[in-house]
Amino acid sequence: MWKQILFHTLLFIVAITGESDDDEIDFSSLTDEVKQDIYNIYNKLNLTSILVKPNVTADKIHYYLFPKGSSNYEEIDTSNPKQFDANSFVVVLIHGWTQDRSTLWYELLKNKFMKRASQYSVVETDWSEYAKLNYVSSSYSVKAVGGFIGEFVVKLIKDRGVPIKNVLIIGHSLGGQVASFVGKKVFELLKEKLPRIIAPDPAGPLFNIRPESDRLNPNDAQVVHVIHTNGGVLGFLRACGTIDFFPNGGSHQNGCLKTILTNIQNLTSAVFCAHHRSWEYLIEGLTLEKKFKSRKCSSHVDYETTNITCTNDYASLGVLNLSSTGKYYLDTNSKSPFSK
């Protein structure tokens, strides 16, 4: 057992430092117990040449509110978030690695929610102080950042009377993993789960090896709605939600060049194409809720060929009140409009 753990720990270190010639190192066959041991060993190693664990503080995380019915924003004083009331329906957006609140998908998704109904308030979080570090350090910030955002959400619920059922968390890429820890912190403090987390292509590197308790998983909210578009490269390939959508198989997207990621620090626009399709699909799906019709199957191979395990259960990835569970597969067009 220990030989297996040490061997895979070394493979893990090689994988994250970009020194492997393999396209992908597969840890999926390992049990959660072995993953936990590997992760614990890695946490204790002195890898200062590649890793600086940042000291995350709440004051370096900022929140910008677009109140319901308003196109103007204001920065929130987290000690007294007076802008919220019991009628607020709050959408909290969490960006990914290298990003800040100027990221394009914030603007597009914020506008989409503000146009849907007048009761939506949108909060754009900015954790760029930690998101713009090297990827390894940013990934180690995720738990603390998510914890602080979770405490902010709890303040809205307890101090401002925002019903927990009116809170929606959306996190893309590394922000999807942050959202996981928002859900965990809310449950820790309130003993009640958030109703819904939406995670367009949650980050995979460094999280594929983590046990469920240290990454996005189906227990983080009542509904964990995941859209996989670059799994095995920048995204998390395996199912990790209560409902998981796999457009075009969940790894490569029509209209994007197929790429192999050998080092997380050396990215190209071609790599980001498939990764960003997740939020593009979500935004289009919010406009056309009956589009992106997806079929429940056990695997993409079965969806494409035999259909033996596929059912007559269908779901659309842009529907906000989804209650379906399982893995859903669909095909898309190579350019917008993406829904077939």
UniProtKB/TrEMBL annotation:
Pfam families: Lipase. Belongs to the AB hydrolase superfamily. Lipase family. Keywords: Secreted, Signal. Its main location: secreted. It comes from the Eukaryota. Residues 75-338 form the Lipase domain. One of its GO terms (biological process) is lipid catabolic process. GO terms for cellular component: extracellular space. It comes from Zophobas morio. It is found in: Secreted. The keyword Electron transport does not apply. InterPro entries: AB_hydrolase_fold (IPR029058), Lipase (IPR013818), TAG_lipase (IPR000734). The keyword Secreted applies. One of its GO terms (molecular function) is serine hydrolase activity. This is Lipase domain-containing protein. Residues 1-20 form the signal peptide.
